[in-house]
Amino acid sequence: MNKIDFSGTKSFTSTRNACALCAPLGATLAFRGIENCIPLVHGSQGCSTYIRRYIISHFREPVDIASSNFSEESAVFGGSENLKTALDNVIRQYHPSMVGVASTCLSETIGDDVPMALREYSASGRGDGVPVVQVSTPSYRGTHAEGFRGAVRSAVESIAKGGTSDGSINFFPPIISPEDLRHLKDILKDFGINGTVLPDYSESMDGGAWENYYKLPAGGTPVKAILNMGRASASIDIGLCVTAPLSAGRFLSEKFGHVFYSTGLPLGIEACDAFFRILSELSGNPVPEKYLKERGRLADAYIDAHKYLAGKRAVVYGEPDLATGIAQFIEETGVKTVLCATGSRGMSAGFSSSLPQIDGVKCALADDADFTTMLELCRDLKPDMVIGSSKGFYLSKNLGIPLIRAGFPVHDRFGGQRLMHFGYQGTQQFFDRIVNAVMEYNQNSNSIGYSYI
Amino acid sequence: MIKAELKSFSNISAEKVKDSILNRYPAKVARKRGKQIIINRVENGDQVPEILANSRTIPGILTMRGCAYAGCKGVVLGPTRDILQITHGPIGCGFYSWLTRRNQTRPETLSDANYMTYALSTDLQEDEIIFGGEKKLKKAIEEAIALFNPKAIGIFSTCPVGLIGDDVHAVAREMEEKYPEVNIFGFSCEGYKGVSQSAGHHVANNKVFTDVVGQLEMRKEGKYIVNILGEYNIGGDAFEIERIMELCGFTLHSTFSGNSVYEEFASAHNADLNVVMCHRSINYMAEMMEKKYGIPWFKVNFVGAEATAKSLRKMAVYFGDAELIERVESVIAAEMENVLKVQGEIRPRCEGKKAMLFVGGSRAHHYQELFTEIGMETLSAGYEFAHRDDYEGRKVIPGIVVDADTRNIEELTVTPDEKRYNPRKKNDEMQKLESAGFTFNDYNGMMTEMKDNSLIIDDLNHYETEILIEKYKPDIFCAGIKEKYVVQKGGIPMKQLHSYDYSGPYAGFIGAVNFYREIDRMVNTKIFSLVKAPWQESPELTGSYVWNK
Question: How far is the C-alpha of A115 from the C-alpha of A107, rounded, in Å?
Fold first, then answer.
């Protein structure tokens, strides 16, 4: 494995076509996975507007995110009064069960003390007792991946309480799709596990048409369930790249003395096996027949499609947990990851250690990567496909190779919120997409027009 | 919300709707919003009530508005094709403004510069926030020059930049001395400036005026040379306008800024007329170019077939050449043939339906034209970031109170250029035109053209959107992506007028036809009737769904 250290030696100082979004976006997405929680971005209103329009472009759902609307005056004298007014207004309008405050480059640069402002706020009897969770998310200190994990960690730090064990299990997934989250919950149900998934935007970010108006879409982890997370018998971080300070599972297990597991994103047979083994151990139940059949079909598909995929070379990018998850998965199918990249710096330690050793082909690993640097590397790496979000279309178009869309944001195709990357079933769906992209490419690049390939 | 009490426009009291909105606000908020929610009444042709606009959004109230950076980098400079843009700041802002507004470009050859798909950022990290980011910015500029050798580089400041003391203007000057062949300029468009993206428009206008316009002496061939200001080529609108200009025989010197190139901006002072599409975002430029170079300007609107025809006629009359006037008439006649045919087909299906528009700083006004052309009525409208003059007309400008937020944006003092000031029309020519009813420097605003009792709302927020929909039950609602899905969840078709829902063009004659068909598709769809399963009984429903009307 050939690690490219972009932070020290990369040839460009500037970031050209970034491969990461900002930290408060990740935080607000996580907050939308808490039931009846309204996110509030503490900064200029542009931050909340940009973040909303971007999240919406992928999920095609209403996304309300409030702002403390800094003016030039608050940028100079501090934004705590704006924050308090914003809390008043947002609590009065939404009657939320929680407000999630994410800071921004602006509020952090001027050194706004959000925890102090919140203490003053509740001490003055304002806010109707609604819990307010705050997370520090300047985008000069992390990407959306860190913001997402940070918000989850902050939520459990400030809300979870201990007590007699209720036998439940806490799950902390990385950024995956609502469809993935629904699948995860189905799996837990089939194992008979009383699980709490945080965040859970399976319904709130992919819901049906409404008969009645809702200020905030239904769904999400109830605040009460977060409160009870201290009473669980185990916590599981899904995704190996999460660092200790960002790990909600590690925090809970240390504070409340329960078992902690860290397992990779269950994508690919081996990673799924590891995940299902943990569920089987914890529940004391064997893996349900249904999943064994899914696993069987998946292995069968690997065999059937081997002729299309073996030896192909892929460029993979995304948040650290997703990118490494994809690399592990496609390695099983015979596709070589020639470049595995992420825009994140903060989770890079886990990123390099969780990548599989890949025989024969050097895999370049790039953290702090951007798409233009990736494109330059690709001239030598000669990949056959690109796997990741819509932003990799830049690579795909320039290299003339297919883009298999995964992760976030997917806003040049329909149904990004229903793409799967989780479990045997999610792997199957993802695998079919990869094989079909290769077949489509082969078909289209042949002048004859074969309809049977 | 969907519980329907069907009412027609005429029997809904705007006062009652306004009251029901304000009722639920605390007194202080209600007082302020009361001045921003106005029941329209047009008297003596153009007298309308005063509206409070361009005023700070209340924290915690969900606004449609963006920031100064979005207005400067995203709106005004974003659509240019060969000015390399560097976002100076942490990564988010640069990423979010990367091709998001769907401005289209069409390089003349494959090798012509086109930086649209490229987003360069200094991606500031914590160290630079503490110790300063100027060094990194200089390096980024050098890299950009090495990579592309661009004619011009714009630097766009995000929130932290001003606060950590980075001087983007000093960096620009220093780098320009080092690379004299590249025009390098910086924008102080930190997101907290002003009250909306409008501040960023002004910042952009100022810098482009001082550092770009007038830098190059080039005049395109032709007799009738015009600049179009405030056309950003969303969905290919500018391409349609370019097509029409060419048919009519106008020479389009530059478009500010859709599908434009640096050299056209830099030599724009050589045109003989400025026409203004989006008054809000670019009227500063029109005013300043008139003062400095003597180029007259007037407002046009290429949204709506009739409005397009009217605008073309006015441009022809300005030049006053009989041959041009005749050619414009023949183009209009030829183009209107298909427009009227499609109107005739679609109008019976759309006639009488109701629209609401809350968008931008001119679109909420312009698009009413298209709805009128297919027989639809606008119940309520408002802007996201406009000023009083966009509502009430430019006549109110002298009376607009300048508050602290506006004062923070520099107002340039412009004087005639010693050598290049050249009034394109002599005084007597101007007077002759004006006495025949021709208006220059004109914009009468949205309210003067709307019906009495329509509800005008500035900076509409989420909560008010709910009430409007509940009370008025419009057939279509127009705004942006942030509003789209909440409106559609409620069963009302929603048209995005920022990105056009990834279709278009809607400007000009071809655009009008596109829009008629699009609205016909949306207001006559049966999809909403499938929302409820047949076995889902809901006895509390008192009427029928709006989509079943």
Answer: 12
